[in-house]
Amino acid sequence: MSAGTQGEVLLQARGLGKSYVQERAFTREKFHLRAFEGIDLSVRRGTTFAIVGESGAGKSSLARCLALLEAPECGEIRIEGRDVARASRSELFALRRNVQLIFQDATAALNERFTAAEIVAEPMRIQGLFTPAERRERALEQMEKVGLARSDERKRVREFSGGQRQRLAIARSLSLEPNLLILDEALANLDLANQELILRLLGELQDQRGLTYIHISHNLLLVSQIADEVALLHEGRIVEQGRAADFFAHPRTSYSNELIRALPPLETILRKRLQEEPA
Description:
This protein is of the alpha/beta class. It has helices at 59-66, 89-98, 106-109, 116-126, 132-145, 162-174, 192-209, 220-226, 244-249, 254-261, 266-276; strands spanning 9-23, 30-44, 48-52, 74-79, 82-83, 99-102, 180-184, 212-217, 229-234, 237-243. The protein has one domain (48-71, 91-264): P-loop containing nucleotide triphosphate hydrolases (Rossmann fold), CATH 3.40.50.
């Protein structure tokens, strides 16, 4: 496990807000489109925190801010107690090693000009770590750990299946040995069989490395299987937050209750799963 004790707060956000400047199509008038506001959350080390909500709720914008790829307009983010906004450029560069974002579309996120080994080694190269030979060897080790073969090292992105591409994205994210992985709808493009394989892999990696996950998802059924805590985002605000077991058993808001009641019954899920399994 990385430094620290399981259960300690790894990431904390207070009063986060973000909006984007947009332009009206005909008048060219500029206006601000709010992505989210007033976001408070704490993510404990070694746990899985889910941020759920419908499309347009602000989940992906929040994910990019938590991953330190974009700066919020207001509020603060603390990682292991350190205020990100007050970090120097070099400190922020180091902090980004500990927080990695995995996108929904692995094909778009991975460089098609690179081989598989080059894709996994790229973060180490950017951070200036190790020699080229050491980066290659570490990349091959990471590929093996996520279920890819060393013999795949020279393949390009298009030569992999959807599930394999997501494994490659996970391998790249793990190459810097981060403490926190943020998965932005990372399973949404996969069928049920591949979802289960990737979830099993993520569970094994969490047990082995003490990883912390933030799952960004609109899939409440998936979240019910993996999350320790849940925050429900609606129109840019968290409307309910708490332990996953309490959230699903005793939703406190009418909106939460409506979403949970819309989940398909278990027999429907099992029937679909059986249909998707190979004979």
